Amino acid sequence: MRIVLLGAPGSGKGTQAKLICDYLKIPHISTGDLFRAQIRDNTPLGIKANEYIQKGDLVPDELTISVVKESFNKEENKGGFLLDGFPRNLHQAKTLQLILAENKQYLDKAYLINVSKDTVLERIAGRRFCSNCGASYHVSFNPSKLKDKCEACGGTLIHRNDDEEHIVLDRLTVYNKSIQPVLNYYKELGILETIEGNADANDIFYDICSSLKAV
Ligand code: AMP
Fold this sequence. Notes:
CATH class: Alpha Beta
Region (LID): 126-163
Family: Belongs to the adenylate kinase family.
Strand order of the largest sheet: 2-3-1-4-8
Number of domains: 1
Number of strands: 8
Binding site for AMP: 31, 36, 57-59, 85-88, 92, 160, 171
Distance between the termini: 9 Å
Strand content: 15-25%
Oligomer: single chain
Mean pLDDT: 93
EC number: 2.7.4.3
Largest sheet: 5 strands, parallel
Organism: Clostridium rhizosphaerae
CATH architecture: 3-Layer(aba) Sandwich
Low-confidence stretches: none
Bound molecules: adenosine monophosphate
CATH superfamily: P-loop containing nucleotide triphosphate hydrolases
């Protein structure tokens, strides 16, 4: 199964991605995570990407497509995947179709998790990430049992710079502008499914599972 998961920052995409991947036993490819790994490793690509990420801007397509292509070349991603955070604009969406078509592959579904601005701001203000392994928490909805340490690896939990409210508002503006043509594109292809995202994570997952059964 090849799935694209779309949604604004704070839409709960990361949580749903994990649930779907566990359920379908497919790998989770998150461009945000791929960039953060490159930033942690201080690679030239990571240093370049970080200039944009810190400001809440999109990383240029050339860099973004190169990290996606690299991950598609990995053996474990060849049988199917869930893409999270990609595509974010029409050029990326069309490039993805081309890359897949070259390998005689296609997307099964594009899910949009639809949320209001207020929900996004509430969710992002409480988000915490492990500085070591990237695991995500929320101070109210999913707190770590070890307070400011990661339950999985003991790493320190941090509030990402790009989760500051003024940067989130910028990210939302950028997201809304660039995602609309992507939604239209997937609608035309007949694979777009919109999921109500101002709900509990379990309810959102239930809706996605109901739709997956029909694929
Ligand atoms: P995320 O974790 O998906 O919110 O991504 C964090 C940041 O990485 C975004 O705010 C962008 O700066 C960058 N990024 C992630 N995916 C993409 C993409 N498909 N195109 C451009 N930039 C991206």
